[in-house]
TrEMBL record:
GO cellular component terms, semicolon-separated: lysosomal membrane
SMART domains assigned: CBS
Topology in membrane: Multi-pass membrane protein
CDD domains reported for this sequence: CBS_pair_voltage-gated_CLC_euk_bac
Name by which UniProt lists this protein: Chloride channel protein
Length: 434
């Protein structure tokens, strides 16, 4: 039964992700201004209130007060010694509604009430997630799963009331299955739910259910968070590269022309190079360059845009006789961390005298940056980014000449799909200019 509930959670979770993904694409295309986002939030809020009140008036399911564990049950249109079961689910806080589904006696809610509640809450949670309001999925997902889990528990109690006396246990398993089918995590959710209930015995059933829900959902769609990462074009890398990425090399991924710097540069020349190329890091090179042949000099270091902005802000320039006017100290770095000045803001505040000065990058650059040969496979490049937490990686030839640079966006540029019995590789252009 637990495995079957895991399958149901995986299927309903994948359907939730697909439906919310379609709705999010529509929002990104048509609801872009602040005014439209406010109007959308108001409309969804009005729809939620209207729908819940309509259901409360249409479904007058009254139960005795002895059937609820709530200290303040909602009577609505019921008699003095009764409470309205559907309103106690829809008009209570989600935390209280979840508590009642887990702990109330078996006959508190009818199957029809639970079915209506699950369908309504499923729909409302799907259209609410993605609004420009602070909202999450953890409690709503648990509540949806607890609803249909209690339906299964109610049916099992009807069949065999002796061995299945507590439908709340099925509500807990259903809550785990639904949440696992949407967010696709297993061990962490098992520990969270086991600690929240204070029941170690349910650990193994929860783990089994969450595992089945995750793998069932993965067969149909990505998790909700992974889906939204892709929809928002965030360069967050998955855990492993695609198996076909081994056919790609570093020179297939690298971006060029490369914005490079020299160890000692005139500030005006540096500003000209980086003004429209505010990337996170810049390779420092020496020797001759040939942009037409994609050769940008010998790599001697890397400097981040944060450190470069701090250098310019502190006016750590060279004097006319070649001496350093001001040297950055560890205190300067500590004071600036983690909110380093923005490079664009610093460039806008430079004076004419600053433009005529020279800047020595050698004391501040990384003299041994990570780099890869241009023939390295995409798989190995991918693992370097994942394991070392890199944001950029220079590509060099056999003579250590810079040929290009790879960023996380470049690794996300290729999309692999299995269509009609064969794999297709699609290139998604984020930014070719670096």
């Amino acid at each position: 039964m637990f495995l079957l509930m895991g399958l149901i959670g995986g299927l309903s979770g994948a359907l939730f992700v697909k439906a919310n993904s379609v709705l999010t694409r529509y929002r990104q295309k048509n609801i872009t201004t602040k005014y439209n986002k406010i109007i959308e939030a108001i409309l969804v809020s009005s729809l939620t209130t209207t729908l819940c009140f309509s259901i409360m008036w249409a479904v007058r399911d009254c139960s005795p007060l002895a059937y609820t564990s709530s200290s303040f049950p909602l009577k609505m249109m019921c008699a003095d010694n009764e409470f309205n079961s559907i309103s106690s689910l829809l008009f209570s806080t989600p935390e209280r509604s979840l508590r009642t589904l887990l702990h109330d006696p078996p006959m508190t809610y009818s199957i029809s009430v639970l079915t209506i509640f699950v369908l309504v809450y499923y729909f409302l949670a799907c259209i609410t997630y993605g609004l420009s309001v602070p909202a999450g999925l953890f409690i709503p997902s648990l509540l949806i799963g607890a609803g249909w889990g209690r339906i299964i528990g109610h049916l099992m109690h009807t069949i065999d009331p002796v061995h299945f006396s507590d439908p709340g246990k099925f509500a807990l398993i259903g809550a785990a299955a639904q949440l696992g089918g949407i967010v696709r995590t297993t061990l962490s959710l098992t520990v969270i739910l086991m600690e929240a209930t204070g029941n170690v015995i349910v650990g193994l059933p929860l783990l089994m259910t969450l595992t089945v829900a995750k793998y069932m959902g993965d067969c149909l769609s990505e998790g909700i968070y992974d889906e939204h990462i892709g929809l928002n074009s965030m360069a967050l890398l998955p855990w492993t590269p695609h198996s076909l990425s081994i056919t790609k090399r570093a020179y297939d991924l690298m971006s060029n022309p490369v914005v490079y710097l020299y160890p000692i540069m005139r500030v005006s020349e540096l500003v000209e190079r980086v003004t429209n190329n505010l990337h996170h890091g810049f390779p420092v090179v020496v020797g001759s360059t040939n942009s037409s042949r994609f050769s940008y000099g010998t790599l001697v270091g890397m400097i981040s845009s944060e450190h470069l902005a701090l250098l310019l802000q502190k006016r750590a320039f060279l004097s006319k006789d070649g001496n350093i006017v001001y040297s950055l100290t560890y205190k300067d770095y500590d004071d600036a961390y983690p909110s380093y000045p923005k490079l664009g803001d610093v460039l806008a505040n430079l004076s004419c005298d600053d433009m005529d000065a020279y800047l020595d990058l050698r004391p501040y650059m990384c003299e041994a940056p990570y780099s890869v040969p241009e023939t390295m496979t995409m798989t190995r490049v991918y693992h370097l980014f994942r394991l070392l937490g890199l944001r950029h990686l220079p590509v060099v030839d056999s003579q250590n000449q810079v040929r290009g640079i790879i960023t996380r966006k470049d690794l996300r540029r290729f999309k692999f799909e299995f269509v009609s019995g064969e794999y297709r590789v699609e290139e998604l252009i984020f930014s070719r200019k670096m």
